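Chapter summary example.
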Amino acid sequence: MIGSLEERKVFEEIQRKLFYMIPEKWESIHLYAAIIEEPFQKQKGEMYFYYVPKGILKRDPVNVYEIPTLFNIDEESYNELIDKLYNDIKKLRKIAEEKHDNLWSNITITIANCKFKIEYDYTDLIDDTSFTPYERHVIWRYNNLNIDLELEDKQEKYIINKYLDYLKVTDLPKTEEFIEGIYINPINNIIDYEKTMTIEAALAMKDENNKSNYQEKGKFFDKIKNKSKQDIDDKDEPHIGNNQILYGNRKK
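The structure predicted for these 252 residues follows.
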């Protein structure tokens, strides 16, 4: 598919937003977005993207929804950026509706090796019941993020094997691609590279915080032992629960 001038302008804006939203240097970016429109119903859809951090050693892809927690960014403000990015996807589909005969249902955008690639998929997501949205997500990750099947959990292995069996008896859906060079003008980042932590540093900081937390608890128990003949004043001693630092599970 040849991108129109209007579409290329949106491509550029999507790249700008993605480059701004990723708070560290990266090797590649992978985005999925779907838009579902049923007659007389409100438009529905979904979007997620991952980036592969740059580094000498192989590093796991990072989910966009992990970024606020890992890099101490205000989650509400960051979610507003995600909404704006999805609005660009909807704008892109609106242009496609006006410019092209066939209307895509979902797209995959890949930015790597100085190339911007967008793959248009025409699968009817309303009538196609072969896979649930969650299963499509697992399959998409497998196809686009070089996921090692052996490292997946039991449920995800089942989904991927189901998908591989499905391919043996079913033709792949029709897709089209558009590829161009990435937008290379300087773009500000949500936080300066020089001031931010890498994923490893962010995770290490979590571990250090947890270690410090346990040490503080140990000191507290030592105080209790040393004061076995004294009353403990709750106002002077911190409650153990208040010292705990809770972190959410990493999303896939």
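To summarize the output: Strands lie at 26-36, 44-53, 62-63, 106-112, 115-121, 175-181.
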